[in-house]
Amino acid sequence: MPVTDGRGLNRFIAFPYELHRGDPLWVPQLRMDVRTLLSPKKNPFWRHAEAQFFVGVADGRTVGRIGAIRNHLHNQTHEDRVGFYGFFECVNDPEVARALWDAAAGWLAAKGCDTMRGPMSPSINDECGLLVDGFTTPPTLMMPHNPPYYVALHERYGFRKAKDLLAYEGSGQAPPKRYLKIAQRVANRAGITLRPLNLKRFGEEVELIKELYNQAWEKNWGFVPLTEPEIDHLAKQLKPIAVPDLVPFAVRDGQVVGFAVALPDLNVALKHNTSGRLWGLPLILWHARKIRRVRVLLLGTIPEFRGRGIDALLYNWIWAKGVAKGYNWGEGGWILEDNAPMNNAAQALGFRPYKTYRIFDKAL
Length: 364
Fold this sequence. Notes:
Blueprint: H1 6-19, H2 31-38, E1 49-58, E2 61-71, H3 72-78, E3 82-90, H4 94-110, E4 115-118, E5 120-121, E6 127-128, E7 130-133, H5 149-157, E8 160-170, H6 177-190, E9 192-196, H7 202-217, H8 228-238, E10 248-252, E11 255-264, H9 267-270, H10 281-288, E12 293-301, H11 310-324, E13 329-336, H12 340-348, E14 352-363
Parallel strand pairs: 3-4, 12-13
Antiparallel strand pairs: 1-2, 2-3, 4-14, 5-6, 7-14, 8-13, 8-14, 9-10, 10-11, 11-12
Helix pairs in contact: 4-5, 6-11
């Protein structure tokens, strides 16, 4: 049934907390953050997208949910008619899953879409991908998690792989000295230096990131540029947990040519608030003091400075500063499976792939 009112939205938001309550690896996000993500008034993503949410109900009990999403900016960027599904959650029942996907597919087809792609919740710039390998470890900040049976449900419905996304882990080992020495030599010749995020000039720093982000990622598969309001919104959300030394900028002749963003893995604290309710905030803050994990979620340079070892310098900065602050484990990614330069660089830096997420397509 389609979500048409506040009561339906409450049911949509509440379902994962009921479904995954017994999963020790699932991390409950704050419900108010989920509500903000879904809100056209609060989330600027919805200025260029529209959605219809559905819940599956059997005998008065919620058994599934899904969102059908039309991202107009994606369609303009790629000149296609791809529609998306996201926020998929379901009991282990193929018929329930089929009903959910049929509802999403019907809505998307009526909007003129010829392909249903996902999961993207709600876009490639948010949580995306279905976990297909790496079920024994918890997800990091802003990464999805799902039970293994979701994979079989997707395959049974007729989805086909569109692309895999790889997540890497590193356990506190410094990058190889030889690799760093070469990178440093190249950087010295190019006159490149590093500096940390300046929280006192946070607004100006965000403006720099706006300029860099869409240049650094524009060629990637599925890429959709973040609008200025979206970057402002994301920055506002992440500022409270940002550690300046974990957000380095690469500078040449006063111009920022690359940057990286690593954040403390807040999921370590969020998992203790099983209800996702706001009253659990003191518990989250208590456990946040014990976070020893980070996620490197962005690392890139403008095109003319790629292949010069700047990625190694940025990562080494994060590693050195992070270890000094007590962090001992990090996740890097995700990285597209066929992005050979980034995958090779991650492994050369000492990371190893440990999770795989899959984007699926189905013709409508």
